[in-house]
């Protein structure tokens, strides 16, 4: 069963009402993510609810690192065919960055295929395809081979030129900007990785920062941009279902920022 999300507060645009009374309304900007409750708050998240800052981050790390099942990198192929299945076509998956629906059978390395995109670039911390961060489904997504290559190991930031067939994604010499519909997804995946992998399990301590060109360092930028993307693009039904499938069927842990996007601001 999908987690029940109940918004306690949310900024509401008054544009329609303003037009009716002849008022001028300023342009809206992204507002902080709405506080939520989920069906897991009294169980899975019970030791995190009500906390902030490093205390919240530490509690979430413990929660999402406990009782986790891990899969091999080869097994990721079949897992992604389930987690990212097109809700309108069970023979296809939805590709990150472009939004294209493509046949599940076209997984591979050739032009026209889709492959396994490490949203947290595997060179940032040098974990490669190791079981753990290299195979964590919460940041692995199907992506077009060529677009995946274009993104490479670039950090995330705004700006650049349009990516060919990228659905609105952009790229420049030192950063990649996903299409608007994927910006929040990317932010929440990156920040999940920063909480999940803290250096205590033999892998690098992954952290977001305010830089691009992080190279092989275990950092990913830019944090301020990722925070803005999280606020501007809240979790979709597709993202929530994906989180549930990973929890129920594969890793048995959750991305807390999909369930509670407001926790991004509470920690960072």
TrEMBL record:
<feature type="region of interest" description="Disordered">
    <location>
        <begin position="153"/>
        <end position="180"/>
    </location>
</feature>
<dbReference type="Pfam" id="PF04231">
    <property type="entry name" value="Endonuclease_1"/>
</dbReference>
<protein>
    <submittedName>
        <fullName>Ribonuclease</fullName>
    </submittedName>
</protein>
<dbReference type="InterPro" id="IPR007346">
    <property type="entry name" value="Endonuclease-I"/>
</dbReference>
<feature type="signal peptide">
    <location>
        <begin position="1"/>
        <end position="29"/>
    </location>
</feature>
<keyword id="KW-0540">Nuclease</keyword>
<dbReference type="GO" id="GO:0016787">
    <property type="term" value="F:hydrolase activity"/>
</dbReference>
<feature type="compositionally biased region" description="Basic and acidic residues">
    <location>
        <begin position="171"/>
        <end position="180"/>
    </location>
</feature>
<keyword id="KW-0732">Signal</keyword>
<dbReference type="InterPro" id="IPR044925">
    <property type="entry name" value="His-Me_finger_sf"/>
</dbReference>
<dbReference type="GO" id="GO:0004518">
    <property type="term" value="F:nuclease activity"/>
</dbReference>
<keyword id="KW-0378">Hydrolase</keyword>
């Amino acid at each position: 069963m999908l987690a029940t999300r109940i918004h306690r507060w949310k900024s509401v645009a008054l544009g329609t009402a303003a037009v009716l009374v002849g008022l001028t309304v300023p342009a809206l900007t992204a507002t902080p993510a709405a506080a939520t409750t989920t069906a897991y708050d009294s169980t899975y998240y019970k030791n995190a609810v009500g906390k902030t800052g490093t205390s919240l981050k530490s509690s979430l790390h413990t929660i999402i690192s406990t009782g986790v099942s891990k899969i091999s990198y080869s097994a990721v192929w079949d897992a992604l065919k389930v987690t990212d299945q097109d809700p309108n076509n069970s023979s296809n998956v939805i590709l990150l960055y472009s939004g294209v629906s493509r046949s599940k059978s076209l997984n591979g390395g050739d032009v026209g295929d889709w492959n396994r995109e490490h949203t947290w670039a595997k060179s940032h911390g040098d974990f490669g395809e190791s079981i753990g961060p290299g195979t964590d489904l919460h940041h692995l997504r199907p992506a077009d081979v060529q677009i995946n290559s274009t993104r490479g190991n670039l950090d995330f930031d705004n700006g650049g030129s349009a990516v060919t067939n990228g659905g609105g994604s952009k790229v420049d010499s030192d950063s990649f900007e996903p299409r608007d519909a994927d910006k929040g997804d990317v932010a929440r995946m990156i920040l999940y990785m920063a909480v999940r992998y803290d250096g205590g399990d033999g892998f690098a301590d992954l952290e977001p920062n305010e830089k691009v060109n992080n190279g092989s360092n275990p950092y990913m930028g830019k944090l301020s941009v990722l925070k803005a993307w999280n606020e501007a693009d809240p979790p979709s039904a597709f993202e929530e279902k994906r989180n549930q499938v990973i929890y129920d069927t594969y890793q048995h842990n959750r991305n807390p920022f999909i369930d509670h996007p407001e926790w991004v601001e509470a920690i960072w």
